[in-house]
Write the structure tokens for this entry.
Amino acid sequence: MSGLLLVNPRSGDDQPSADELRDEAESRGIQVHLLGEDDDLAELAREADADALGMAGGDGSLAVVADVAIERGLPFVVVPFGTRNHFARDVGLDRDDPIAALDAFTGGRERSIDVGRVNGRAFLNNVSLGLYAQLVHRREGHRRRREALARLRALALLARDRSSLGLTVDGDAVETHVALVANNAVQLDLFSLGERERLDEGLLHLNLAHGLLPSSWEERTGERFVIDSQRGKLQAAIDGEPAALETPLEFTVEAGALRVLLPPGR
């Protein structure tokens, strides 16, 4: 199998380096492209002469290449090389060992998993609105915040902005400061996103937090949600990347759409 690995050398700050990862991949016969500042990630994936597409980067970059893999009907290889690597964790990879993930190109087994979409844009993990999204927008350029600092900033945001998001869900008004749409069920508390036990249940999970300091979540499940707001445009975080989305927001799930290649034994 001819594989292409796209590497974001600016993702994360841990070992190995992008050059070391490239050398390891090329020693396995894998084509490698280190992304430059002006590269169009989606176009590189679309134009690649390869039988499998891989991405070494954070969750946001993974979603872009995964979407092209679906478009082209190709298997997708995940190499954890970002700051948090939530998707790599949930799919069963060792987030501290990107080199081991390369074995998926040469002897991997295939697993079909779900992909979410918001207004047509693919996401692998979740889309958040409200408090989470504000934190993501504020942390741009400060991606290695300590958890304690993140909690303090969350509390400060709650103290300053006590207004509800003013959302409707499928036409029904809801009062919430935080809304999160997850691709499959996710463990939640106010300040962090936990693991998902499944990636193939074919359902979106809409989580709404009520109150200024919510300790519990209202959860709804379905294959499609439409979220609207009087604000017209909402700050969002899509797989941890900041975005501004025009409302209404249509969320859908494509069950089993993504063919993920995993290393032997994973």
